[in-house]
Amino acid sequence: MYQYDSYDQTMVDARVEEFRDQARRRLEGKLTEDQFKPLRLMNGLYLQLHAYMLRVAIPYGTLNARQMEALADIAEKYDRGYGHFTTRQNIQYNWIKLEDAADILADLSRVEMHAIQTSGNCIRNISSDHFAGAAADEVADPRPYAELMRQWSSFHPEFSYLPRKFKIAVIASEKDRAAMRLHDIGIRIVKRDGEVGAQFYAGGGMGRTPMIAPLIRDFVPLDQLITYAEAALRVYNRYGRRDNKYKARIKILVHELGAAEYTRQVEEEFAHLLSVGVEPPREELARIAEYFADPAFTDGPKTIDRSDPDFALWVDRNTHRHKHDAYVSAVISLKPAGGIPGDATAAQMRVVARLARDYSFDELRVMHTQNLLLPHVRIADLHAVWGALDAAGMGAPNMDTIEDIIACPGLDYCSLANARSIPLAQRISERFAANGRTGELGELKLKISGCINACGHHHAGHIGILGVDKKGKENFQLSLGGSEAEDVSLAKITGPGFDEDGVIAAVEKVTDVYLASRTDGERFLDTYRRIGMEPFKEALYG
Amino acid sequence: MGNARDLGTSPDEVQFRFRDDEPADHATVTVDACCDQTNATAVRIEPGDDARVLLPFLGRLALVEVNFPTFGDGRGYSAARILREAGYAGELRAVGAVLIDQLSHMRRCGFDSFAPDKRLDADDAARAFATWDNVYQSAADAMQSGRRTIAEKRHEA
Q1: How far apart are CA B107 and CA B77, in angstroms?
Q2: DSSP B4-64
Q3: Distance, CA of A155 to CA of A438 (rounded, Å)
Q4: Which of A41, A158, A223 to mutate to test the interface with B (most CBs of B within 10 A)?
Q5: What is the DSSP string of B129-154?
Q6: pLDDT tens-digit map of A430-467
Q7: CB pair distance less than 8 Å for B137 and A242
Q8: Pair (A151, A72) in one structural domain
Q9: What architecture is domain B4-132?
Q10: Same domain, yes or no, for A325 and A415?
């Protein structure tokens, strides 16, 4: 994985000092809270309901054992002994003191980490396919391109006061495991006639106005990648709406202009910027790519001993095909039945770090599903890995099942939320773990947001739940048919909402409809697409 | 049309300047007026203005002011770079809500003169201008002073 050189380290250290100075000026009254707010946000520091929250960047979700141990140390030293992994492959600490923030950033910088641009109206931490560098179906490892873009977007002088936040995802396979088309810019690395380049999608997003990004360019040569991104951002910075923060994301600009007109403007700016020359030298991408060279894979057994059914089930559900046939990628579930999706204790983080060191070439990933991943595990080592995970409460065999719920922090933490999402996720996963239907239901992605900002990705859930405030009471709207994958679609609301007990019963009812209606091999989503909303509505409201 | 002088900042209001020439002290007009008047030499860009309409007139302009009515409106950063990319070599003055923590980015986008609404602490400003020893992106400073990016330095022979 990527390692800082002295330039990268100096940049992060300079940022820590800059933030320390900003915090000092805030305390001395030289900065108003209004002036300080965007500065602390650009360093990942939010004011939540009960305390400050610090969001630490994990670029494209990749980290090593030492970094995971540093995250565990921070959880114990400055928080309450745990952290929360997020849908953008970051980690959040929910109980931070403002006066500790600069020290935490300094601790992070010692392990080549930071909280830069994890918030604020700037280019956010860049996300990627969690199986990058391991998946059998990728045309290239997308992470060198993501790293090139990380450096380009860090402290960008022109794009630090955009109309609104800006999220970029980079993938490199037909399969989309990063919700690429639900990003402000989604990039897919492709190969055309033997040449590698980038497809650009722009104007996707969730939030209160969900939109799927249209394709704006089918092939950007690799030595023009940064120039094209700069053109796309400049058009947005100049013409994105600033009169209403709810209409300020690039999706609204692309929608109002139309994809063709937005694309035309980007192409014009792109032609201009090519003449200016803003692209990094070509050798830079090659330099970065060297850090992502394959580890030394060795041949070994390709099958497991299936005599222990619990182990076999975990392997079937939680491992993913690797490009080397003696390896798999192993999902570490942070979704125990009844648990808080994405939370991990410091002790669990240390277990994960040790497993990465012993069994995965010192590499870990954070998944956008709020789980962790050992990307390169020898099939021969799977039993040992599973045993250690199971002992630490991270062995639930539930990847992509109804228990693998994405949920935002909701009203338990967030000052924007209208409803609690965590307790609902806990009750639903408990319910299905108890009734034994999880396996029968197969792939079923359930996503819960506690308000219309949609941090829990409910628009993209096969089943989505949105918490709203109805006359002072929590109310939950159910929606069906969303997908964040290559078959991307936005979920549709079933009808009137439910209270907490009611929505849990409603989830059970829609799964009953699926089980009664499915044909062989159909997922919940496939059945919904085939039979439509009516049978589900009938069961819910009929 | 009212007194054109009311639009612009005077040289006394300029707190930081990175130019050797005499500060321009001209009647500053709006972008629209600048396009209509053949003799205007100073213009003021508001966030909603398209800086590119000025490109035919850059030869006669000695001062371009870019107004930041609020510090969070970043359109002026693009306006500045567009002018520098087109070869504008005159004074480029950031005016309005110009604060300490925006100085280094503004400088990189090509501003060489700063007239903040409220005068800034000189020590804090000096520290802010010096925030970055090195930079990741190629911006106006690459064009104006040949500043090389980190990536370029990494691959020097």
Answers
A1: 9
A2: GGGGSPPGGG--EE--SSPPP---EEEHHHHHH-SS--EEEE-TTS-GGGGGGGGGG-SEE
A3: 45
A4: A158
A5: HTS-SS-SS--HHHHHH-PPPHHHHH
A6: 999 999 999 999 999 999 999 999 999 999 999 999 99
A7: no
A8: no
A9: Alpha-Beta Barrel (3.20)
A10: no
